[in-house]
Automatic annotation (TrEMBL):
The keyword Isomerase does not apply. Keywords: Hydrolase, Membrane, Protease, Transmembrane, Transmembrane helix. The chain crosses the membrane at residues 12-36, 56-78, 90-106, 112-129. GO terms for molecular function: endopeptidase activity. Residues 56-154 form the CAAX prenyl protease 2/Lysostaphin resistance protein A-like domain. Coiled coil: none annotated. This is CAAX protease self-immunity. GO terms for biological process: CAAX-box protein maturation; proteolysis. It holds the Pfam family Rce1-like. InterPro entries: Rce1/LyrA-like_dom. It comes from Marisediminitalea aggregata.
Length: 159
């Protein structure tokens, strides 16, 4: 039991760190691959899609509502649908990642940047979900994915 707990803590820390780093790497990629010679001016403040609001309602949305709804839709629901169709875990990861990143396109900002960082996030969340559900069951998979998503949202918005 203790070994399982240590493994889960390591996984949660690892995936949270990866989600945070993927967001920062996405920003760096957008800056590196932007053509600065074009006449069009790019508003780099728009790359940070989520404004850094610190009021309580926004914090509740970031930490509770968003991770809960998105985990239920993009992991739990899509996993159950994919399991009926195929046992291939990569199909679930692909479907979950694509729907997660497509869902986030409704936000304002640079489309390439949004697709890049939400694809990384969706990939991490779906991979963690399928890994934990196979190892520890559905409740642990939901719990760890929720925690990683909430921690990633906090890190992206406040670090």
């Amino acid at each position: 039991m203790e070994r399982v707990t240590i493994t889960l803590i390591k996984d949660v820390f690892y995936f949270t760190l990866l989600a945070f780093l993927s967001m920062k790497l996405s920003i760096l990629c957008m800056l590196v691959f932007t053509d600065f010679t074009t006449a069009e001016s790019v508003d780099y403040s728009s790359l940070l899609v989520q404004e850094r609001k610190t009021h309580f309602v926004h914090l509740l949305y970031l930490v509770f509502f968003s991770p809960i709804l998105e985990t239920l839709i993009f992991c739990v629901f899509i996993y159950s649908v994919c399991q009926r169709i195929t046992e291939n875990k990569y199909i679930f990861i692909l479907c979950s990642t694509l729907t997660f990143s497509t869902f986030h396109l409704v936000k304002e900002g640079h489309i390439g940047f949004i697709l890049l960082y939400t694809s990384f996030g969706g990939l991490l969340f779906s991979y963690n979900y399928q890994k934990q559900i196979r190892r520890h069951g559905k409740s642990i998979a939901i719990g760890t994915t929720l925690f990683i998503h909430a921690a990633a949202n906090l890190a992206v918005n406040f670090v």
